[in-house]
Specification:
The chain has about 290 residues and is of the alpha+beta class. The chain is about 40% helix and about 25% strand. The protein has 9 helices and 12 strands. The strands form 2 sheets. Strands 1, 2, 3, 4, 5, 6, 7 and 12 form an 8-stranded mixed sheet that branches. A 4-stranded antiparallel sheet has the order 9-10-8-11. Strand 3 and strand 4 form a beta hairpin. It is globular, with a radius of gyration of 19 Å. Bound molecules: adenosine-5'-diphosphate and (3R)-3-hydroxy-3-methyl-5-(phosphonooxy)pentanoic acid. The site of adenosine-5'-diphosphate (ADP) has 18 residues, from strand 5, helix 2, helix 3 and helix 5.
Length: about 290
């Protein structure tokens, strides 16, 4: 049995969502896939792709490793878990959520358990957005404390652009940076404006000026690297809507070319960066 869960993008509303505002997000066709086998020894083994192997000995119950915490949340038995992921790690595309959701489903767990697992990776201050959209699929509006809502928005030519930078202190580090900006600088006003921009994008669609403004606001929070800003400058020069996505401090940008031809043209302009075409995943986490 294989279980797979998609990666996600945030179209608008990262960080402001942590403070209770709405975010517009989508599941995309890059997946983490999990396969489970019984284990003859009293241990849980995780094989991450071909090159990394983690073992939790269930005879000694004093470990506080991430795997031990995950195993406790899901009440896991001796098992071998193979994880294959197409989702780049620590790059704003929700690698930890797609892993948490796929593993939780494989163990017949609940969405709350997946959120608890995600919190092990993110620290306890995340909004829960990544887990909800990865589980649900499609293009969605998410707000803390409300059921996730599917929306209709035409996105045909999504381009993912890798800045090559990776957040050094994880999502938790970027959230802490924004909190510092809220407590000591103009972070609160910036987040309020991101919220207004998000509401407008939900109503009016991917209006270019709003997407650019959204990026500029995230930049003012101090979470955009030089390479991220370089990518957005190149997209803006070509008049194509683009912004960073996810926690920031590295990771991916998203661009919305109007058609296939414009997408190919933008890829050429961005030849210093790795680019990937993506589509919206409509199915969320599922058994395949
Ligand atoms: N395929 C994988 N291989 C190794 N670690 C993974 C994988 N998928 C998720 N993880 C875990 O998720 C963490 C990254 O999560 P996070 O910092 O939230 O970044 P992202 O923006 O990708 O969600 C990694 O440090 C690792 O612990
Ligand atoms: C910054 C935030 O809004 C999104 C984080 O996304 P990611 O971990 O970079 O994939 C945090 C959250 O919503 O929990």
């Amino acid at each position: 049995m294989f279980i797979r869960a998609p990666a996600k993008i945030i179209i608008s509303g990262e960080h402001s969502v942590v403070y209770g505002h709405k975010a517009l997000c989508a599941a995309i066709n890059k997946y983490t896939t999990i396969k489970i086998h019984p284990n003859q020894t009293n241990s849980i083994e995780i094989k991450w792709g071909n090159d990394w192997h983690e073992v939790l000995d269930l005879n000694s119950n004093n470990s506080n490793s991430q795997l031990a915490q995950v195993a406790r949340i899901l009440n896991m038995r001796p098992q071998i878990i193979e994880v294959e992921s197409e989702v780049p790690i620590s790059s704003g595309l929700g690698s930890s959520a797609s892993y948490a959701v796929a593993l939780t489903k494989a163990m017949n767990g609940s969405i709350d358990q997946a959120i608890d697992i995600e919190n092990i990776f993110h620290g306890k201050r995340g909004s829960g957005l990544d887990v909800q959209v990865t589980n649900h699929g499609g293009i969605c509006v998410f707000q803390i404390g409300k059921p996730i809502q599917q929306v209709n928005l035409p996105i045909q030519n999504l381009l993912l652009i890798d800045s090559g930078d990776r957040k050094q202190k994880g999502t938790e580090g970027s959230i802490a940076k924004v909190r510092n900006c809220v407590e000591h600088k103009d972070g609160r006003q910036i987040l309020n404006r991101i919220s207004e921009v998000t509401e407008q994008i939900i109503k009016e669609g991917l209006v270019k000026e709003l997407i650019y403004e959204n990026h500029d606001l995230l930049n003012r929070l101090g979470i955009c690297t030089d390479r991220i800003n370089d990518i957005i400058r190149i997209c803006k020069n070509e008049n194509i809507p683009a912004k960073m996505t996810g926690a920031g401090d590295g990771g991916f940008c998203i661009a919305f070319p109007k058609d296939e031809q414009e997408s190919e043209y933008l890829k050429l302009k961005l030849q210093d960066y790795n680019t990937f075409k993506a589509t919206i995943d409509l199915e969320g986490c599922k058994i395949i």
